[in-house]
Specification:
By secondary structure, this protein is of the alpha/beta class. The chain has a single domain, classed as Hexapeptide repeat proteins (UDP N-Acetylglucosamine Acyltransferase, domain 1, 3 Solenoid). It is built from one helix and 24 strands. A hairpin with a 2-residue loop joins strand 7 and strand 8. The longest helix is centred in the N-terminal third of the chain and has 31 residues. The chain binds coenzyme A (COA). Coenzyme A binds next to strand 23 and strand 24.
């Protein structure tokens, strides 16, 4: 009986603590972002970097452990990153958006959990820096990433550098998207290929 009451109190206090932490973190993010719309929610356990390069529209809703990072410098190199996210964005848990260049996400885009949108790699792909420790290599990218309106990216999918995903398209679970996906398509697999037209 008494243990039940203690457990309930602990659960209640934990909920209140998380709510307060969320609120404080949201206020910090909103003030640090380049621009932030109405109705902004980000979980307090998220990792954010370079918020002054990130613009976010209305109704942003990102669940636990989002990594949202715009690198303007890394290992002595300078970059000019920019992230623009439209209205009505949803991200499930453990998503990762990272850039040294440009990532544009349109309106009404939904990411399931464990989705990665990353435009850079450690090294530039010709392996001239193979003798340099991985994390010390100069970051390289192929191009910008653009995700148009109304796209749904399913659980575990990865969107790589230089890719454009056309409006209304769906990217299947665990896909690795290395090339453009046209509008109104379902794409799946590794590398992702169109499996259906909508
Ligand atoms: C992409 C998806 C939506 C497509 O669903 P669908 O239109 O019903 O597709 P189908 O099941 O008819 O599959 C069509 C073909 O593509 C293949 N396929 C479907 N999804 C695939 C995937 N993620 N990876 C590889 N192949 C896939 C199927 O095996 C099938 O191939 P076949 O014709 O040789 O048998 C669905 O498969 C998917 O990945 N859902 C993820 C759900 C999710 O992440 N939910 C999180 C909630 S936010």
């Amino acid at each position: 009986m008494i243990t039940n009451i203690i457990v309930r109190i602990v659960i209640l206090l934990r909920k209140k603590y998380i709510k307060l932490m969320d609120k404080i973190f949201q206020i910090h993010c909103c003030h640090s972002l380049k621009s932030c719309g109405n109705n902004f929610y980000i979980s307090y356990d998220s990792t954010v970097m370079g918020l002054n390069h990130i613009m976010i529209g209305d109704n942003f809703n990102a669940h636990a452990r989002l990594k949202l990072r715009a690198f303007d410098s890394y290992e002595g190199q300078e970059y000019s990153p920019s992230v623009k996210i439209g209205n009505n964005f949803y991200a499930g848990t453990d998503c990762h958006i990272g850039t040294i260049g440009c990532i544009t996400i349109g309106n009404n885009v939904t990411l399931a959990s464990k989705v990665c949108i990353i435009d850079h790699s450690h090294g530039i792909g010709d392996y001239s820096d193979i003798n340099i420790p991985v994390l010390k290599r100069r970051l390289g990218k192929k191009g910008s990433i653009s995700i148009e309106d109304n796209v749904w990216i399913c659980e575990g999918a990865i969107i790589l550098s230089g890719v454009k995903i056309g409006q209304n398209s769906i990217i299947g679970a665990n896909a690795v998207v290395t090339h453009n996906i046209p509008a109104n398509s379902i794409a799946a697999g590794i590398p992702a290929k169109v499996i259906k037209k909508l």
